[in-house]
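[recover] target loaded
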């Protein structure tokens, strides 16, 4: 069964849709295959799987980890959610830009964002479950977050009064992160430039 890349927002993000087999019994799909990911230029070295459930209006993010660097492949097997990734790489031409993707159990979309991107989501349905495949194991001493409504980024969230954790309400701004020595862990190996404040909803 085929896995197709539907779009590539900000060049390094990939929106992936698996082929579906469905009949009156139900459905079947392959959400990850190393051979096809390799053909598509996507990572195959996932080392940790996570699974979360949240109720409507919950917003989690924007989270990231620099040691070890953690890329994430995210999908919504139950409900619907708006998934977001923000480029934090200091030398990237898309630094500060964001991409948002409506993902649901029905549309089967998965979002890959490499290390160097902060990720978050808000729940649109009564409840939603999010599954993550990660390229790095969790390290609480080398992870942080960017403020969900940082005006320098300007994410067009589909909620106005989200339910947040205390930790996420105290997250740093993009400017604070870029001024920190840890921000030097994230580089894109591309021409320098800044697109702060520009968004893309898929």
């Amino acid at each position: 069964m085929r896995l197709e890349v539907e779009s590539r927002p900000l060049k390094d993000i990939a929106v992936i849709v698996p082929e579906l087999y469905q009949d009156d019994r139900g459905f079947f799909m392959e959400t990850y295959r190393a051979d096809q990911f390799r053909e598509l230029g996507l990572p195959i070295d996932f080392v940790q799987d996570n699974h979360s459930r949240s109720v409507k209006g919950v917003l989690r993010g924007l989270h990231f980890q620099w040691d070890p660097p953690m890329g994430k492949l995210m999908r919504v097997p139950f409900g619907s959610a708006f998934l977001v990734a923000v480029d934090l790489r200091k030398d990237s031409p898309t630094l500060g830009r964001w991409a948002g993707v409506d993902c649901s159990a029905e549309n089967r979309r998965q979002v890959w964002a490499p290390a160097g991107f902060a990720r978050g989501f808000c729940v649109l349905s009564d409840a939603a479950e999010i599954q993550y495949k990660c390229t790095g194991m969790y390290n609480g001493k080398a992870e942080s977050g960017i403020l969900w409504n940082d005006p320098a980024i300007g994410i067009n969230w589909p909620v106005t009064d989200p339910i947040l954790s205390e930790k996420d309400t105290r997250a740093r701004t993009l400017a604070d992160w870029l001024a920190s020595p840890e921000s030097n862990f994230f580089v894109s190996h591309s021409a320098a430039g800044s697109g702060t404040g520009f968004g893309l909803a898929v």
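[recover] notes: The domain at 3-201 is CATH 2.60.120.10 (Jelly Rolls).
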